[in-house]
Amino acid sequence: MRDVLSQIVRWWESGQTFGLATVVNTFRSAPRPPGASMAVLGEEAEGSVSGGCVEGAVYELAQEVVASGTPVLQRYGVSDDDAFSAGLTCGGILDVFVEPVSRETFPELGAVAGSVREREPVAVATVLSGPGVVGARRIVWPGRSSGSLGVARLDEAVDDDVRGMLAQGLTGVRRYGSHGERRLDELSIFVHSFAPPPRMLVFGAIDFAAAVARVGKFLGYHVVVCDARPVFATAKRFPDADEVIVKWPHDYLTSTTVDERTAICVLTHDPRFDVPLLEVALRTSAGYVGAMGSRRTHEDRLTRLREAGLEEAELKRLRSPIGLDLGARTPEETAVSIAAELIQLRWGGSGRPLTDGSGRIHGDGTQA
């Protein structure tokens, strides 16, 4: 929904009612993940739920939902008879929830949009099906909630679970009993998390870092470039970075927030910088720690880190030389290889050419 948020807020602020279609579940090789959205107002459409496969059918359904005022949960799957009918030619299956949205039906939308703009974590929990009121919402922040799913005990259970999902940036469907019983699955609730973007910390103000910052921004990271040398660590040299920090790398890493979604890219390949930096990095909860350098540099680095007291389990977390083996040479090609490794770790891909494999391309699961 981030892609269409600015447009739907304008429609919402103007007092209009529009249809909002959101992917809530996927199976097999679905082209868009849970949370992908398309908004429809009259003859206008913003966003996408399938990359083009079922957009026409969803557009028509959204028009009907706006006219009726009744939300609909619709499944779209493989089209056996006609590749251009309302089916997915990629062989996947999408569950799409289509609802009418206005100031009356979604009074908290302005607050949600404000939190997204301010990078404040927020999640929207919506009843999809079951004995509850379909379309009922609960807005959950780390320290407060708004709205109701209809039953106080259900609200309490959902608040607890949603905050856990929000902390990890997870979006997906949770199932409960009608009063919040976690052992039952009568009620389906879609949790759409709007966590702040994951952070990419790039250490070393070199030309490779500029390329890595560019591709990190493209992938949706909040990118920080850090180097101790003020003549090199400048906003002019790194226009794609959200922040450029002049500080000793290990000092900065010690003072900043790191979580499981953080990617740390060490591009200094200078023992004065990278050994004390990696000593800190490998003891954080960062989901990715990679370091640039040759295999000889890597072996020397491991020796120095062992001398600094790191255990073998900690050293195994280090991805060095950084990136996948794509034969990269230039800074831009190297940045692509690092991006490929990050994507592989996120979704569990093999890293092999797709043409050499068989079976479905995309795995199931929720989006971080």
Describe this structure in words.
- This protein is of the alpha/beta class.
- It has three domains: 1-106, no CATH class; 109-195, no CATH class; 199-347, Rossmann fold (3-Layer(aba) Sandwich), CATH 3.40.50.
- It has ten helices and 16 strands.
- The strands form three sheets. A six-stranded parallel sheet has the order 13-12-11-14-15-16, with helices on both faces.
- A hairpin with a 7-residue loop joins strand 6 and strand 7.
- Helix 5 (207-218) packs across helix 10 and helix 6 runs parallel beside helix 7.
- The radius of gyration is 23 Å and the shape is elongated.
- The protein starts with a helix and ends in a 21-residue tail after the last helix.
- Residues 80-85 and 364-368 have low confidence and may be disordered.
Q: What name is given to the CATH topology of the largest domain?
A: Rossmann fold
Specify Rg, calculated over alpha carbons: 23 Å
CATH superfamily of the largest domain: NAD(P)-binding Rossmann-like Domain
Strand content: 15-25%
Q: Calculate the mean pLDDT score and round it.
A: 90
Number of domains as seen in the coordinates: 3
Query: What are the segments in which pLDDT stays under 50 over at least 5 consecutive residues?
Result: 80-85, 364-368
Please give the alpha-carbon distance between the first and last residues: 14 Å
CATH architecture identity of the largest domain = 3-Layer(aba) Sandwich
**Biggest β-sheet: strands ordered side by side in the sheet:** 13-12-11-14-15-16
H/E topology pattern: HEEEHEEHEEEHEEEHEEHEHEHHEH
Number of helices: 10
Helix content: 25-40%
Total E-strand runs: 16
The top level CATH class name of the largest domain: Alpha Beta
Domain XdhC Rossmann: 200-342
Domain XdhC- CoxI: 11-77, 116-177
Organism: Streptosporangium album
Protein name: Xanthine dehydrogenase accessory factor
